[in-house]
Amino acid sequence: MKEIKAIIKPFKLDNVLTELHKIEGLPGITVSDIRGFGKSKGKNAEETISEGLHELVPKTKIELVVVDEISDRIVDAIQQSAHTGNPGDGKIFVVDVEKVVKIRTNERGIKAI
């Protein structure tokens, strides 16, 4: 199993969700509004939020846990549908998941996804 986290520009969320829904076996997704900065520290961003002395850029975080077999398709779908070619497009992180437990049923592993 893999956990996939992607930080994208908020206006690309609909594009990303449209592409993800085309992938058979997509178990579910968590979406959060976040803010932060990358190497450019928000200097090139069209929208920044002042947090005291610091400028933060609004972003959207997508999180999924999926079976290994579809992880590359999901990463490709996110990369292609979130891409603008401009600074701040975001990042995708993929990590191995050791264990998943569904709280309601106590199912474990792939059945819990």
Automatic annotation (TrEMBL):
Q: Extract the PROSITE patterns matched here.
A: PII_GLNB_CTER (PS00638), PII_GLNB_DOM (PS51343)
Name a biological process GO annotation.
regulation of nitrogen utilization
Q: Which GO terms describe its molecular function?
A: ATP binding; enzyme regulator activity
Question: Which Gene Ontology cellular-component terms appear in the entry?
Answer: cytosol
Q: Name one Pfam family in it.
A: P-II
* Database matches in PANTHER family: NITROGEN REGULATORY PROTEIN P-II (PTHR30115), NITROGEN REGULATORY PROTEIN P-II HOMOLOG (PTHR30115:SF11)
Q: This protein is called what?
A: Nitrogen regulatory protein p-ii
Q: Which organism is it from?
A: hydrocarbon metagenome
